[in-house]
Structure formats: structure tokens, C-alpha cells
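User: RND transporter. Structure?
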Amino acid sequence: MIARRRIAAGALALLTGCSMAPAYQPPNIGVPQNFSEAEGWTAAQPMDGLPRGNWWEVFNDLILNDLEARSAAASPTLAAALARYDQARAAARAETADLFPEIAAGADASRQRLSGNRVGGNGNASTYDDFTVGGSLDYELDLWGRIRNSVRAARADAQASGEDLASARLSLQAAVADAYARLRGLDAEAELLRATVDAYDKAHALTVRRHDGGIASGIDVNRARTVLDNARAQISAVANERAATEHEIAALVGAVASDFRIERQTQSLAAPLMPTGAPSQLLQRRPDIAAAERRMFAANARIGVAKAAFFPTVTLGLAGGYETTHGDLFKTPNSFWGLGPASAILSLFDGGRRKAQLRISRAEYEELAAGYRDTVLTAFRQVEDAIAANRYLADQAISQESAANAAERTSELALTRYRDGASDYLEVVTAQTDALSAQRALLLVQTQRMRAAISLVKSLGGPV
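Assistant: Predicted structure:
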């Protein structure tokens, strides 16, 4: 009994074969305990209640929610990534088919006449019908792991393609949110400029009245006209930039720009603080890191495929069926079968082709391993950049808001002093210009904070 078990175990080992691929070990990349830029910085509000996939809902904007849904349904970029994923999965299934025997069935019917002058014909011609029904089975013994490593590589490629799809989806979501944040920032800037034009128009009317009364000079009128027309020109510039941003969003959501409109909204998005999680989670959350690791695994498996080419390919064959020239086809005397051919093919000389292919496979692995390390390092850099941007932009917003308020008060005081005759209009123009610049800078910082929050989610591979 023990001898039989040993024989069975040996036969199983022979049939299953071995793997020529090197032992796989991803590069060891040191992961820090904490993000360096996150010290003393925590989220102001928890996000545990948010759906994991719909991180943009933290902005509480229904229009943004609708745009994200439309992009997921109609984006051509996402559709192309999905098609590539389907191709990769189909390729993996095609490789997996080589693990199983190939079975074929066929039938043949013919009527033949043999010459009477054939060898052994004795001058008598022969005419008969020939009917054959049968099947065949061919199976390659994967003794060296060529097929299994090919399957492993194809499956890893399919997994990498799935991660590419996840990365494309996250990038699309972030691109839509980023463009929408810029659009709302432009709306706020346009509203500021319209209010500024109204204020400048009133100031210009004041200088005209003072000029007509002989109190102010023509220089004051021209200065007031200059700042007024500059503000009007900036409205047109912002409108042009908004139109381009709106068209950008249309392309992202798969809509025709000519038929796409987003209503203006004066209330800008609030910039939430985003939690960062632990650095060790980054390697698990970033789809591009996962894709790079899977492609490295596939390249390692293909080294085994290249090594297996140095050993013979062993194939087994089996055929059987029924054949008759008369009477009932499916009778026992009409059956036939054959075991074989069993073939073993080994290339003895190929001019160094297999060695070259092995070197190529190893070089491809080294390239992808280096790419994996680069992807990880880039991911940490992007996270640190995003965390730093969120921190420092929050501080900048506080100072910029204070500066904008002070500049606005200075502008009001300068206009009052001019109205009372205590100063010339140059002081008013300077104060108005400084106030508008400070207010526009504040809006820019607020928009940058929204974009930084979106960038952090993208760099983390999704919400934490």
C-alpha cells in the first residue's frame, strides 16, 4: 500500500511538474511611521459616515454629485479603461485554457473506388462507402511550469489592468471635482468683479460731478475711468476662463460642449480637512502601486516561462471512435482507438534565441521593479505635498482674509477722504487697486484649498 502511494505521488509530481520562476519577493521599501507633514494636523470632522466611493459628497454640492455620476456613466476615458480590463481578463482566460486538454470531435463520410490494378487488387476494382465518427484528446504535460507561469502572468496582468481601471476612475473623479472647484472659484471672482465695477462706477460718477463743479481735475476723472474699465476687462477675462473650464467639464462627463451648461453659483465650495491615515495604508490603497506590483509579479512569472523553453515539450495524444464501410456504424467491432502520438520536442540549437529571451525577461523584471519603487516614492511625495498644501493654505487663508478686510477698509477711508477734499484721487485708486487684489487673492486661496483637498484624496488612493 505504501509503495503504491509513493508511486502515485511520484506520478502526480511528474504530471504537475515544477516551476522555473524565481521565488517572488517585492522590493523592500521602508515605510515611515507617520507622514512628516501631518504632525499636529488632524481632520476637523470625521468622514466615517461617507460612502467610501463617493468622497466628493463631503462638499455637499448636488451639482457636483450629478457631474460625478454622469462622468461614471458616460466618460469615454473610463469606458476605454474598462475595455482594456475586459481584454486583459479575456487574455487570462485564454492562457488558462492551456491547463486543460484540448478535445476535438469529427465525422467523415466518403465513397471511394479503388483501382483493380492496385497492388494486391488482382485486376478487380472495388467501390465502397467509408463512415468515420471519432474524437481526439491532446494534452501538454506542464513538467517545467511553462503553462502555469504563463497563466500566473496573465492573471497578474488582468489584476493590474483592474487596478488601472480603479486608478482611471479615481483620476476622473478628481479631475471632475478639481474642474468644478475652479469653476466655482471663477464664479466667485466674477461676482466680486461685478460688485467692484458697481463701486468703481459710483466713484467715477463722483469724480465727474466734482470735475463739473470745478473741484476735481480731469486727471481724477481719467484715473477713475481707468480702474473702472480695467475691472470691466477683467470680467471678460474671467468669463473666458469660465467658458473654457465649463467645456473641460463637458468633455470629462462625456457631453458635447455646445449643449452643456452649468448655472452660475455665487456660493463657493467649502474646503474640508481630509484625514490621511497611516503611511502603511498608502501601499494598499493606491491603485497605481497595486498595478505596478502585479506587473512586477507577472514579469517574474515570465522568467519561468523563458527558463522552461530550455527543456523539452512533452505532449500526449489520444484518439478513438467508430469506422465502417457498411452496416451499422456504432457497433463494437467498428470501434477503434489509439494512444499517441506522445511527443517530446527539444530545440538543440537556436543561435542563442532562448538565452536572449531569458535575458529580456530578467531585464523586464528589473525595469518593472524599479518602476514599482519609483511609483511608491512618487506616491509618498504626492501625499506629503498635498498634506503640506492643506496645512499652509489654511494658514494663508486666515492671513489673506485679514489682509482683504484691511484693504477694503482702507479703500472706504480713502474714498471718504477724497469726498471730503482731504486727499487726491491717486490715493483712492491705490487703495481700490490694493483692495481688489487682496480680495481676488483670497478667492484664489480658497479655490486652492478646495483643490488641495481633492488632490489629497487622489494621492491617498481614495478616502480614508
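The beta strands are 102-114, 126-141, 313-324, 335-339, 343-345. Residues 146-212 form the longest helix (67 residues).
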